[in-house]
Amino acid sequence: xxxxxxxxxxxxxxxxxxxxxxxxxxxxxxxxxxxxxxxxxxxxxxxxxxxxxxxxxxxxxxxxxxxxxxxxxxxxxxxxxxxxxxxxxxxxxxxxxxxxxxxxxxxxxxxxxxxxxxxxxxxxxxxxxxxxxxxxxxxxxxxxxxxxxxxxxxxxxxxxxxxxxxxxxxxxxxxxxxxxxxxxxxxxxxxxxxxx
Amino acid sequence: xxxxxxxxxxxxxxxxxxxxxxxxxxxxxxxxxxxxxxxxxxxxxxxxxxxxxxxxxxxxxxxxxxxxxxxxxxxxxxxxxxxxxxxxxxxxxxxxxxxxxxxxxxxxxxxxxxxxxxxxxxxxxxxxxxxxxxxxxxxxxxxxxxxxxxxxxxxxxxxxxxxxxxxxxxxxxxxxxxxxxxxxxxxxxxxxxxxx
Lengths: 196, 196
Prior knowledge:
Tetracycline Repressor, domain 2
């Protein structure tokens, strides 16, 4: 890793923390320059535009989600254990990521859902990847005989996504100590209803 | 309704549309003054501060949610019909409210969940009201014999909230035409599993 990469990584980390505090709309080259005590022209040289900066932050968060939630789950045995690992990894992500500002993919979804462009495209792609990956894990759980053949993988992916969003909002807004238990009960009910 | 009220209503409507477009952080007295071609000092006379303006917009949206989603549901017969009306009203709210910007209560939840203050207090209160109102409707459905006595009203409120959030995100981010059907299937599964 060269010196340029280190700087880039340091800038991206600061940009991610800034976005988690003020949202993507507040993630301007000027605000980031102030945060890092760097010149705006130096940051422009790195990113070129506010939109390119926003996009890199979002894409690096999506990549981090894949590394921290998806990849560990894929290393678990196929079937229900893999679904459980995915779910638990996601709850942990909600609790810790990326800072006290909450999941940046959720933030980006809310900010860009009405603004066609590369940011909305990236959010769409992330949501599609998320839902199809869960559906694939469900399909495998059917194939290995853990879940019933008549379970609809896309429906179960939607259901799981809803549970995790409920957890994110209840946990973050009201700091409800029961959020984890509620989400786990919902997940166990979902699995129980689909079990072979 | 006096002339002052009409002006106030017109200002609040414009402020709500602005917030749905740019978020609460972008809802400044200056931006709103520009939107309305009014003087900043005139708006300050109305609201006093950016925070007071944000709070009034959020509170008027919460009141509108109660009017458009809760009150029509309460007029339905107790039990499952009332839960269905609540759920369907909420899906309609997701689809239309308040403009193409999506549900402002969701937006405020994401923006303020890490910023203690009156805005976070209002979001917390709205979420508590929401969850306890659903739980109360579930409790009534148990009392009238539509749902089993061992159903946990608070768990079912969490489950319903998750389904509606999943619907909001899938519908808005990917404009998925199946979002309504997925949410309805999830709701029907939830009711079926709890039916007496």
